[in-house]
């Protein structure tokens, strides 16, 4: 039995908490993974994992062995990396996960630059509208919006953006334009509800330096970003949306900003990766690259007079996806998991 491979398989099973996921991440048949763990237990003459039909868990011996495996494998990886030809640069598969709008509007238009710099890195970019578990799904790093709660992850803030209040001209002609935050209680708003709880999210603002939440009434509720924007464009009510997502519609007149001096809570954007003692070179170069990319992109800042997606950072295309959902949910980020 290859003990080095067995240690790698064992670590991946523990981190994925699943034989099937570990096999998928390693590119091995599930039977091979199961047999490897069984042979490892025979070799060590201890039981490493408790297995049931629904879950697996570490035994005390398994927990101790796992810690030793992580330490040994990390030392080996660091040693190998230190002897590689530095002129060759980082290489290997890099699995990423990002919000759909961030991927389409910001990352993808610039990925050729990253590939040119690091041609030996194979990018696997996920943009599903769901939070991923980095460890269980074998993802190297993610971009997240909002405050982060998971202390087992390392987070580096790379940008922020703010949301604005908009409405269709047809709605404002019918209902009038609010002049103060208090006036919002007299208006209709498109409601956005949580897919997990079914509860509609409140709006929030910064008033005299204090975070203030407000519950608005409405005649329609959705849980999809495209539908949220479409309802606003159709005149169902006011919407609170990221500035850069509304730029095209503001420029065309399909939407009008109201209460322009109202301040919403800035939304932090972070790149997040597992807390490993040895950060791989491929993750390190991506984190540095994406931080520079976001730092130079006014599209994600506060208002830029006369700006459109086409003249900010060179991003073109219709801004429409589920980033709306992330922004509206920001006051309740405890529901989000990494």
From TrEMBL:
Superkingdom classification of source: Bacteria
Keywords of this entry: DNA-binding, Transcription, Transcription regulation
Gene3D superfamilies in the record: 3.40.190.290, Winged helix-like DNA-binding domain superfamily/Winged helix DNA-binding domain
GO biological process: DNA-templated transcription
Record's keyword annotation contains Transcription regulation: yes
Pfam families: HTH_1 (PF00126), LysR_substrate (PF03466)
InterPro entries registered for this protein in UniProt: LysR-type_TF_proteobact-type (IPR058163), LysR_HTH_N (IPR000847), LysR_subst-bd (IPR005119), WH-like_DNA-bd_sf (IPR036388), WH_DNA-bd_sf (IPR036390)
KW Transcription (keyword) present: yes
Domain HTH lysR-type: 1-59
Molecular-function annotations in GO: DNA-binding transcription factor activity; sequence-specific DNA binding
PANTHER family: HTH-TYPE TRANSCRIPTIONAL REGULATOR (PTHR30537), LYSR FAMILY TRANSCRIPTIONAL REGULATOR (PTHR30537:SF72)
Family: Belongs to the LysR transcriptional regulatory family.
Protein's name in the database: LysR family transcriptional regulator
Organism: Pigmentiphaga aceris
């Amino acid at each position: 039995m290859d003990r080095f491979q067995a240690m790698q398989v064992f670590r991946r099973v523990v981190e994925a908490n699943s034989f099937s996921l570990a096999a998928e991440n390693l590119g091995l048949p599930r039977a091979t993974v199961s047999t490897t763990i069984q042979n490892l237990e025979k070799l060590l003459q201890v039981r490493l994992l408790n297995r049931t039909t629904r879950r697996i868990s570490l035994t005390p011996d398994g927990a101790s062995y796992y810690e030793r495996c992580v330490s040994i494998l990390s030392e080996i990886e660091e040693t190998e990396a230190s002897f590689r030809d530095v002129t060759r640069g980082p290489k290997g598969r890099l699995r990423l996960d990002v919000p759909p709008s961030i991927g389409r509007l910001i990352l993808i238009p610039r990925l050729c630059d990253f590939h040119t710099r690091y041609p030996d890195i194979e990018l696997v970019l996920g943009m599903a509208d769901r939070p991923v578990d980095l460890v269980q799904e074998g993802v190297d790093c993610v971009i997240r919006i909002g405050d982060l709660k998971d202390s087992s992850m390392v987070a580096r803030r790379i940008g922020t953006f703010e949301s604005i209040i908009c409405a269709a001209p047809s709605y404002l002609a019918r209902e009038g334009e609010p002049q103060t935050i208090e006036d919002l209680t007299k208006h209709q708003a498109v409601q956005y509800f949580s897919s997990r709880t079914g509860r509609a999210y409140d709006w929030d603002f910064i008033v005299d330096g204090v975070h203030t939440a407000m519950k608005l009434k409405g005649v329609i509720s959705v849980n999809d970003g495209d539908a949220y924007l479409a309802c606003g464009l159709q005149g169902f009510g006011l919407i609170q949306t990221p500035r850069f997502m509304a730029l095209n519609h503001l420029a065309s007149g399909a939407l009008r900003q109201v209460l322009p001096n109202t301040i919403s809570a800035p939304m932090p954007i972070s790149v997040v990766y597992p807390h490993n003692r040895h950060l791989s070179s491929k993750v390190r170069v991506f984190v540095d690259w994406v931080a520079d990319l976001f730092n130079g992109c006014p599209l994600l800042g506060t208002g830029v007079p006369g700006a459109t997606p086409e003249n900010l950072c060179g991003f073109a295309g219709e801004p429409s996806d589920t980033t709306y959902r992330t922004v509206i949910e920001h006051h309740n980020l405890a529901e989000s998991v990494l």
